[in-house]
Design a protein that fits this description.
By secondary structure, the chain is of the alpha/beta class. Helix content is 39%, strand content 19%. It has helices at residues 30-46, 60-69, 101-118, 140-157, 179-190, 207-212, 224-227, 238-250, and strands at residues 11-14, 51-54, 77-79, 84-87, 92-95, 124-125, 132-136, 161-165, 169-174, 197-200, 215-218, 232-233. The protein has a 5-stranded parallel sheet with strand order 2-1-10-11-12. Strands 6-7-9-8 form a 4-stranded antiparallel sheet, with helices on one face.
Length: 251
């Protein structure tokens, strides 16, 4: 399952929303996604550039589909902010073994509570998640306004959640699980050296990627705070920025 290139980096660990696709309902640019797939095809064929895998807060089924679209069938991808990995070598899925049955029960209770409190206000729970809860509302300002109350309620109940905001969602994740803990699992499984990894992200949720990789970059649309963690910030947005970063890494 491991991958080794002749360049400076073996692996690029890339976020999805705000990087290779919009976080909104806007269409994904299929032509540019094909360019990313061609990068990976050449990476596997020639071993002269780093392979791109994905690390996202999206449900793992979505991440798996995107990973297959970009022609990464060698290295695992990460979904649900670290909860799951898809393992392409045998087409299986692995949940973080540190997640207990009791924690899964708490996640279910939190989902029930949030639905009962906010569904009448138009808040929707993102489907497809197992050990996390993500909330969406068409009015992002409304979402931001309820986030402190959600954090306070979880703390009052002693529930072990990390509550954070992306561009359009509130993410409620188990405190001990994140993109970084999943990257640790990925590198252990594949034998890829962390010093030969690069990362791409656009929000502070991607700080966990930045913490684990040797070189971190952002597209131009990234949050100002995460840009401060970057070794390179592209002048281009979203997937144009990702393709620019990959060209820089492949030179």
């Amino acid at each position: 399952m491991s991958f080794r290139s002749t360049g400076a980096y073996d692996l690029v660990i890339c976020d999805i929303d705000g990087c290779i696709s919009p976080e909104s309902h806007a269409p994904i640019d299929g032509h540019k996604l094909t360019q990313l797939a061609e990068h990976n095809r050449l990476s596997l064929q020639q071993n002269d550039r780093p392979l791109v895998t994905l690390c996202s807060g999206r449900p793992i089924g979505f991440v798996e589909a995107m990973c297959r679209l970009i022609h990464n069938t060698r290295v695992p991808c990460i979904g649900e902010n670290g909860v799951w990995m898809w393992l392409p070598d045998d087409n299986s899925f692995e949940i973080d073994p540190a997640i207990t049955d009791e924690q899964l029960r708490v996640v279910h209770e939190a989902s029930t509570l949030l639905r009962s409190q906010y569904e009448s206000q138009g808040v929707v729970l993102q489907p497809g998640k197992t050990a996390a809860v993500s909330l969406y509302h068409a009015d992002t300002d409304y979402l931001r306004s309820i986030m402190p109350a959600i954090s306070d309620e979880f703390a009052r109940r002693g529930w072990p959640f990390r509550v954070s905001m992306t561009w359009l969602y509130i993410n409620c994740d188990l405190e001990h699980v994140n993109k970084g803990t999943a990257i640790d699992r990925l590198l252990t499984r594949t034998g890829i050296d962390a010093t030969r990894t690069a990362g791409i992200g656009d929000t502070m949720g991607d700080r966990f990627i930045a913490d684990r990789v040797a070189w971190f970059s952002c597209p131009a649309n990234a949050d100002a705070e995460i840009k401060q963690r970057a070794d390179y910030v592209s002048e281009f947005e979203e997937i144009d920025g990702v393709l620019d970063i990959l060209r820089r890494l492949s030179d």
